[in-house]
Target: 6-oxocyclohex-1-ene-1-carbonyl-CoA hydrolase
Amino acid sequence: MALDWMPREGGVKDHNIWGMEHFGTEPPCTMYEEKPIIDPSGKPVEGLYSAWITLNNPAQYNSYTTEMVKGVIAGFHRAQMDRRVVAVVFTGAGHNAFCTGGNTKEYSEYYSTKPMEYTQYMELFNGMVDSILMCQKPVIRRINGMSVAGGQEIGGACDLAVASDLAIFGQAG
Model:
């Protein structure tokens, strides 16, 4: 098969600098999953996966919190360093939105009165964009619903976009 050259046996070092502490399943969080690669006959290819990084905050249209930004950075680093991962799918939970940008609730309750903290947050946001841009695996943005504001900004860092027929795109400002 065409993918036989991919290293799959043990004995290779794990170069991840983070564990799974930045991922979760209960919103708001970033989820990280590995899904098997399927060959043309419909069978899973042993030892090869796609990494799915999901913004999980559907009640707030998958707007990202500070902790979710950290999760995205950790997820892209994990996917990049895992030899078994051949591609990354970046998506949002539910059907209403890929992402609507930063979490305005967190902005108003915390960052609105702390400009230096907001500066630090923006450095973290830039790190998130960089982690997507620098990922050495193909990054596919899977758009289900709205992709606006910061969702467009992080989406623009992906290599390819696949959108549902009901996807909505927009940019404020």
About this structure: The beta strands are 29-38, 44-56, 85-92, 97-99, 139-143, 146-148, 160-163, 168-170. The mean pLDDT is 92.
